[in-house]
Specification:
single chain, 393 residues, mainly alpha, two-stranded parallel sheet, 2% strand
């Protein structure tokens, strides 16, 4: 295979071979499994990031989830586009799927987080909302070359603070109405939409997805050995860049923070995701791709199964965790305490009722184990159909 990058709509002889790269399924499955840890933590009442090392690293390990999910969504879009061999069809698919995700976030996912339909009290613009709108935007970008999309993505990531300054160019009289939209894009201190809690803004995540799209072209245009070297170089370079810059920041400004240096280094800003946060998470993820490509065995098959149906898994795991939390509370205290979760994932569990880490991980293992059978069924059903609604989930 030549090292040159084909256009996204160039015909290929073996579309199936390039539309399924095992390392993507393995890593995406791994981050989906890890993601459930943080969502169990939400319902357990344990605070994010501290104060103990156990709780800190329970939260920190899940930081890899959203970046990998967004990045590989872009990569998968590139590979699916090559399978379709039609940029227009890819754009329509991304538009349709993106809007479906937005609707799911505002309806089914919102309900399963809270188990109530009181939309006047609480609406969440969460990770699926962000992924949906990023897919819609990516659908408009795929008319460009994959290289151009990737460069745009990197520019958005590394120049994201510019988006916080742009509202200053709008006349003062218009900033109220503009703020309602702009606070979905990037925080600028404007008044957002009443009643909507924006957890994930679109910048820099659209940049992450676009960078993943460009990265997909590099993977599809290389041999397995070339992909291995490329992933190691990119991943290790990004990780080293994080350690150097992050180390400089920590040791030059840590005088007022009593925490150990390792905590200060790893505690990077996620909302919105800073450049250091993305280097910290995506660097190791990309570097691990060669290892994941060669993993074999039953455990790898289980992880890959989750990675083949990430959205189906996501839709199932939140209600499963919510029900598990109610059951645990009832078994421990004789009361499910459903009112604690009326604005999940923003919950407050009284300190005396919070779970131990051991209980958190036990519930996580049970929930993930219970989800394997339905995910395996859906993965087989989805692979056996050439079209239909399953491709959007």
């Amino acid at each position: 295979m030549t090292g040159a990058v084909r256009p996204v709509d160039a015909p290929v002889k073996d579309a199936a071979a390039i539309s399924r790269i095992q390392s993507i399924d393995i890593l995406r499955g791994a981050v989906m499994i890890l993601m459930a840890i943080d969502h169990v933590r939400v319902y357990s009442g344990l605070p994010a990031g501290g104060p103990t090392a156990g709780i800190f690293f329970t939260r920190w390990i899940t930081h890899f989830c959203a970046p990998a999910f967004a990045f590989f969504a872009g990569t998968s879009a590139l590979l699916y586009g090559r399978k379709l061999a039609d940029r227009g069809a890819l754009a329509r698919y991304l538009l349709t799927r993106g809007l479906i995700l937005v609707v799911l976030e505002l309806t089914l996912i919102r309900f399963t987080w809270t188990f109530n339909i009181d939309y006047g009290r609480f609406v969440l613009a969460g990770v699926i909302w962000m992924l949906g709108w990023c897919m819609v935007i990516l659908g408009g970008l795929v008319r460009l070359s994959p290289g151009a999309v990737g460069i745009i993505g990197l520019a958005v990531v590394f120049c994201q603070q510019v988006f916080g300054l742009l509202p200053g160019l709008v006349p003062q009289a218009m900033r109220g109405s503009a703020g309602r939209i702009w606070e979905f894009i990037y925080p600028a201190g404007l008044k957002g939409w009443p009643g909507i809690n924006v957890l994930y803004v679109l910048v820099p995540w659209i940049g992450v997805m676009a960078a993943g799209y460009g990265f997909g072209a590099l993977l599809a245009g290389k041999t397995e050995e070339q992909r291995r070297r490329l992933c190691l170089r990119i991943g290790l370079f990004a990780t080293a860049l994080f350690l150097v810059i992050g180390g400089i920041v920590v040791f030059s400004s840590g005088g007022g923070d009593p925490r150990p240096a390792i905590f200060r280094l790893l505690d990077q800003r996620k909302y919105p995701a800073s450049q250091l946060y993305l280097l910290m998470t995506l660097g190791p993820t990309i570097a691990l791709m060669p290892l994941a490509e060669n993993v074999r065995g039953w455990f790898a098959d289980i992880v890959a199964t989750f990675g083949r149906v990430p959205m189906f898994y996501y839709l199932l795991h939140i209600p499963a965790i919510h029900l598990a939390a109610l059951a645990v509370n009832f078994l421990r205290e004789g009361d499910a305490h459903s009112s604690w979760y009326g604005s999940a994932p923003f919950v407050f569990v009284p300190p005396a009722h919070r779970w131990s880490l051991a209980l958190l991980y036990l519930v996580w293992a049970i929930v993930v184990g219970a989800l394997y059978a339905p995910c395996r069924w859906f993965a087989k059903a989805k692979a056996g159909r050439r079209a239909g609604w399953m491709k959007y989930i």
